[in-house]
């Protein structure tokens, strides 16, 4: 989508990525990088959003008011949902509460509509807003601005249900839901070593959001000016903050309806990877911890669906360049009770170097650095692609298959389909559980040589 300078922003330099302190800005859409800050509040906010939806994990107090608690050794954060009174018919007091002699006023199900409507797309919108805050000269005090057209451009979506207006309406509703979120927190202060508390008497806004609508004869435009709430802004400092320089926009381009788990899983590895990377380690977590972050449960009726969902999501993340490698293992056997052990088996991943390269433009094929050019995808020659000459090498070291798949951005399903076997069988071959047949090894080399030739022609 081509971005045009809005008529309502005279004098704003859209080419200036880092504006002056406190200035209201609308950063330009940058196609190949999307930076955003990482802090305990952002991590817990994503948890709260993912925990919403029809199968909400939010709890209710004695008066029926929804809240979501998150606790760690460093402190606790509790989210609340408090819609403003009768804004655009989103909340109606006469319908939203009723009176009982014992408990007084109790909020009915209408009050929980915002929680029920939280979704993966809500998290996408939140990350987009945070990416604009991250590009401010002073994220703690600066004011950012974004339009619905810019949000659609970042998502690379133009219409929904056949009309662009439906898309803009949906995006606007997601922003307004975020404006309804409040929080109270008690957390360790990274700067002083003490403890900081926000919203003890009255919950603090997650984001201060003001919607502004501009009208002309030929149409109307909606823009949002926003800044961090006090609790969120407290952690937006160099000492207590991890910054993701390049957040793969491929995650935002995935469908929130058809690839929701992949989006959540990619966000999770990115977030915890910042902490692990600063300590010189690789991010590591159990499937149970991941599912807890994603607000999902094991499909106990058919646990194999959960296992397959992890494999498909990791393969997709490799394909779009969020992670480079992982040690996700297929269950040795799928006999009764295997899931209890599998969900407690840690998974280690290696994140893509793209996530940390904010200052370099990254294309699909090459990374350009000062005075040099590093090829990221395999060359067409057999030597450049690292393809063995003989099938016996693959049979002796079947892990080569996984390395080749990663280099060519292939999923297990893609290679398994080309070899005429199932994904589970290929997984066992790659991990050496079953010996790969000579015919299958030779067929795989032929497949990769053909892929290398295709890349050479690109």
Structural class of the helix and strand makeup?
alpha+beta
- Helical content class: 25-40%
Query: How big is the Rg?
Result: 24 Å
Question: Strand percentage, roughly?
Answer: 15-25%
Largest sheet: 6 strands, antiparallel
Number of strands: 19
Structural domain count = 3
Shape: globular
Which runs of at least 5 residues are low in confidence (pLDDT < 50)?
1-31, 84-108, 358-384
- Distance from N terminus to C terminus (CA atoms, Å) equals 25 Å
**Average pLDDT score:** 77
**Total of DSSP H or I helical runs spanning 4+ residues:** 18
Report on this model:
With 458 residues, the chain is an alpha+beta fold. It folds into three domains: 244 residues, no CATH class; 117 residues, no CATH class; 81 residues, Orthogonal Bundle (434 Repressor (Amino-terminal Domain)), CATH 1.10.260. The protein is built from 18 helices and 19 strands. Strands 3, 4, 5, 9, 10 and 11 form a six-stranded antiparallel sheet that branches. A four-stranded mixed sheet has the order 1-8-13-12. The longest helix has 20 residues. It is globular and about 70 Å long. The N terminus is likely disordered.
């Amino acid at each position: 989508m081509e971005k045009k300078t809005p008529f309502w922003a005279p004098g704003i330099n859209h080419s200036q990525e880092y504006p002056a302190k406190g200035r209201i800005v609308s950063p330009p859409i940058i196609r190949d990088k999307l930076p955003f800050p990482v802090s305990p509040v952002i991590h817990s906010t994503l948890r709260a959003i993912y925990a919403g939806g029809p199968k909400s994990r939010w709890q209710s107090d004695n008066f029926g008011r929804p809240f979501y608690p998150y606790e760690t050794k460093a402190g606790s954060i509790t989210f609340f949902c408090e819609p403003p009174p009768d804004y655009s018919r989103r909340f109606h007091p006469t319908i939203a509460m009723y009176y009982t002699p014992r408990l007084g006023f109790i909020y009915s199900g209408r009050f929980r509509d915002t929680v029920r409507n939280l979704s993966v797309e809500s998290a996408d919108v939140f990350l987009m807003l945070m990416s604009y805050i991250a590009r401010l000269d002073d994220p703690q005090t600066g004011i950012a601005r974004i339009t619905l057209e810019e949000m659609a451009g970042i998502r690379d979506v133009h219409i929904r249900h056949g009309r662009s207006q439906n898309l803009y309406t949906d995006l606007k509703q997601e922003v307004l839901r975020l404006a309804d979120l409040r929080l109270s927190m008690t957390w360790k202060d990274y700067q002083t070593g003490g403890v900081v508390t926000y919203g003890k008497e009255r919950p603090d806004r997650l984001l201060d959001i003001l919607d502004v609508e501009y009208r002309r004869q030929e149409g109307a435009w909606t823009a949002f000016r926003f800044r961090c709430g006090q609790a969120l802004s407290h952690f937006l400092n160099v000492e207590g903050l991890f910054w993701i320089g390049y957040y793969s926009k491929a995650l935002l381009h995935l469908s929130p309806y058809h690839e929701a788990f992949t989006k959540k899983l990619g966000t999770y590895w990115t977030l915890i990877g910042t902490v692990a990377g600063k300590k010189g380690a690789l991010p590591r977590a159990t499937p149970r911890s991941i599912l807890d972050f994603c607000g999902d449960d094991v499909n106990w009726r058919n646990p194999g669906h959960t296992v397959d969902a992890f494999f498909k999501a990791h393969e997709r993340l490799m394909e779009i360049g969020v992670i480079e490698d992982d040690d996700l293992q297929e269950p040795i056997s799928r006999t009764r009770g295997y899931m209890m052990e599998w969900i407690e088996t840690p998974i280690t991943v290696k994140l893509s170097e793209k996530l940390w390269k904010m200052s370099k433009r990254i294309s699909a094929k090459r990374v350009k650095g000062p005075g040099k050019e590093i090829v990221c995808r395999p060359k067409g020659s057999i030597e450049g692609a690292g393809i063995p000459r003989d099938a016996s090498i693959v049979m002796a070291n079947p892990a080569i298959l996984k390395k080749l798949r990663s280099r060519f951005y292939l999923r297990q399903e893609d290679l398994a389909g080309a070899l005429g076997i199932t994904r589970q069988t290929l997984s066992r071959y790659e991990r050496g559980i079953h010996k790969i047949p000579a015919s299958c090894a030779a067929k795989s080399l032929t497949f990769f040589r053909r892929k290398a030739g295709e890349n050479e022609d690109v």
